[in-house]
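go over both lines:
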Amino acid sequence: MTHDHKPSRKPSGTGGTLVAGILIGLLLGLAAALAVAWALYRTPAAPTQPAQDGTREQSKGQAEPANKTPSSEKSAAAKPRFDFYKILPGIEEPVAEPAGKPAAAPERPKEGYYLQVGAFQNADDADNLKARLALLGMEASINTATLPDKGVWHRVRLGPYPSAEASRPTKDTLRGNGIEATLLKVREGDKP
């Protein structure tokens, strides 16, 4: 039995063509990305800038239209100019008070009721209790007071309530969550 011994050949170039294909694909992708970026970010012609008198100045090299008349300038000035921040919904715009009437100060109640939930010498403890109340859906305030011979105290309070009866549901909710509250009556001129 005779055997033909032929040397086995490995296909050459499979590893090299794979790497070359990947490199070519990356280069083509990079070229496409650069072309898109150039198309999107190329600088436009000089934009018009608003002048100080509210009209628009023409960019350099552009002639002003010959048919523009003073009446068309007035109608252009009468059109509302939209500002980005005025277009957003829910933005409040300041309203000028009428010149004839002085601004009336909001009336404070003669007396109010507050629920004091805690008093702490450490401000962080007061903030933690305020955050805990916020998780319950209650908006608390922190009143800082310096007491003689006792130092600085941070009082956490809810209110004001118009009457003691109006504070009762809140006090019951607090009690149900393991928080005790004390009802305080604060008169006008007293600090809450």
